[in-house]
Queue: 3 jobs
Job 1
Amino acid sequence: MANDHLSHPVPPGSSDLGSSDSGSSTTALGSSDSTASLENSPCNTVGTKNTSKASGGSLRILIIRPSALGDVCRTVPALATLQKALPHARIDWLVQKTFAPAIAAHPAVHQTLAFDRKRYRKLLLRPSQWASFGNWLKQLKHNNYDMVFDLQGLARSGFFTKVTGAKTRVGYANAREGGHLGYNHRYQIDPNLHAVDRMLALLQAHGFKPQTDMRLFTPAEDQTWADDYLKQVDINTQPFVILAPTAQWLCKCWPIDRFISLAKRLRDEKK
């Protein structure tokens, strides 16, 4: 029987921890060889690390936050919260395949479970993918998670939460699209909270002290490439700014004339 709870206090403010931008680009998932080897796997997994945490007696935890890119990055404080409270647990993250590189190198992530949304979109109309998707779900259940936290709160993520068969399945009592049906620990959290605050409030309601660590980590090979590139363009150790003026959704695009004004201001301030 599910446990429904009233709303709990909002954790310390963290609403300045970034904004969502589903249109930002990501790098390719792993090397060409490793990506190819995962292509036909029912439950694609990348980023396996911290093998000392995967010993037989470790608590197995799954975070479900598949998309979008900005929201995936803003979920890192929730990851840090779980790591701080349960330092010896194995924490996996179910994330959309295209966004997995954003968090795969985080030291708290044991493994990312890459969900290929493009492959399984409009599944009812694509019988050729039914067997593959069924195998993906079997693998998800086979991972035998002890605790699952649905930080997305939608029908699909709630369904994935239920499929895991975990003894403890935590989510929002007011999750949209009936997502709450997948949980047995439900908490009423104000939907108007900032996304970071809302996720931390959910974890706080379940007994975890919120951590606002928003750090993202870069794979060593990518950092090496970036360092080499900065040397090539003669930036090296000089301060620099990166502007990303585009997004997938026009409603998330800042007017281009404001980017121009900002760029000119940054140029003038450097002088």
Job 2
Amino acid sequence: MQKTTIASHYVRTLLLSLKRANIDYQEHLRHAGISEAVLDDERARIPYESYVTLTRSAWKALGDENLNLTETPLKLGAFRYTGMLMLHTPTLRHALKLGMDFHRYINPGYEISLTEESNGALIEVSLHSPALDENHLFAEFILSGWHRFSSWLIDRNIVLKHVSFDFPSPPHEAEYQYIFPCPRDFNQDSLSIRFGAHYLDQPIVKSDDDFAHYTQQTPAGLLIVPADDDSYSAKIRRQLDACTDCRFPSFDEVARTLHMTPKTLRQKLKKEGIIYQEIKDVIRRDSAIHYLTLYRMPVADIALRVGFTETGAFIRAFKGWTGVTPGAYRH
């Protein structure tokens, strides 16, 4: 798994579901290796591996794949059976239709439909109890989950054309840049994702063994951008991830490797709502959190690993990224 982090918002939202069920959430935080003190700052970041562990722990404790965000719980194993049905169909079109039909029998949390239109395929979702999903975790899981699993089934990243949300822009909207890397609109009539209809004709290429491995890792692939995402920011990130100790090339050098002028690349990134410096900062931030969480390396050594020659500059940058110093984050 990449050195990826996720906003502490997602952890706090999961903990609310556990609290509503009168479950001791502290035990689950400890199991995931997450310090409760880190969650006090909204800017804090959590290693994605830790969030996956916490989610799996919450699923088991709640006995509910809907994470206590619907009126009626969804029994554990529902995703597995839905996925097994979808796996044994000829194309993505057949898989989605069968999966959605089966979903209507087993999941009372929401309605979902697939529509083919002149400008693409549309997956539309309507929650039955949106008031229970006040922080929009369930809505995000549904949209990203159907998109990510569909991409996995055909072994191709389905490039999203547009995503609509039936709620206002949330405080953590910056995360959507990575979860839904495409144009997004809020306060719409429904939750939906739109993509090219040609993907529906793609064959299902995964095997039973592939699916067994996938379910063992779930929900690892549901909220982070797929490794083969076709956005320019993802292409740049793949280049930078390969750099030693975060020694990044200049923007002009990156543009040359993508066979375009710096001006053109800058325009492409602007459409995606990001700049080169932000991509570099995200990699440095996530790498720093990775080393702080999983290794007992001195802060000075971590500073060098993430591209800082001065430890003091690294500490100031880290506090700006997360709201706490590296030492406080580690402890």
Job 3
Amino acid sequence: MADFPPPFTGVRPDQKSPEAISRPQDRGAVEGGRFATTSPMPELPEVETVRMGLAEALQGRRLTRVSINRADLRKPFPPDFARRLTNRRVQHVRRRAKYLLLDLDRGETLIMHMGMSGRFTVYGHNAPHNGKHDHVVFETDDHKRVVFTDPRRFGLMALAATGEVDSDPLFAGIGPEPLDDKFTAAGLSAALKGKRTPIKAALLDQRVVAGLGNIYVCEALFRAGISPRRLASSVAGARAGRLVPAIKSVLKEALAAGGSSLRDYAHADGELGYFQHHFRVYDREGKACPTCGKPVKRIVQSGRSTFFCPNCQR
């Protein structure tokens, strides 16, 4: 598995201000007086950043109280949701693709997805009253409150037996983790065999590889010198041998920087990551390619902006 950066420092019980694992006031990489274009969903580095913050706050702790302030998010909460979580101890906080997983004692796992606007905030003492969009509150045996806020309500919370998580319909057919040793050029070549879609679309397919999104696919294709318009089947072989290391390196750099932190995603200590300042092509339409100096081009593929260098990527 990948080497992740060290965990973030959690909230001390005497802290009055929250540590936002992701929060809207920290929105955006501002460039030329405007916000950078963002992907509408969190990608792997952003979710991993949140996972580390939650692990500091929750792993090993007992949930003394759980409250929900509405009946549903994207889907209804499971039956007896709050009761099934109350007095359970969080044994592990992990991630699969873009989902956060809290393994509980007595054999259940809480599955969470942040959707488009969801964020978690950890409070110590003197936490404020719940806001309009604070839909789930977890209280722990060391007097922390972890609040899930989701204005657009595209998030998800579900429960599954821990031993059956991998076979849950939410994870059916999901591909390998890109930072896992099991994600190899040979494996990617096999997954792309016969695919007639552009390689950009194929890499966004979670059945091919888990957790990738628009930002890091653009960056990885640039590093590998592969055009986003190239047929996926033609990437098998030598090109896949360049692409897999490129994906791994771009994700590791983003993790070290705390994720791209465009708009809603931030460190557990509230500080933005800075990888967005080092994008080579993403959101750089018309600017000089860092390799050849020719303008970076933007096209639209499947309704999503794609940034690439037509000269360097073939």
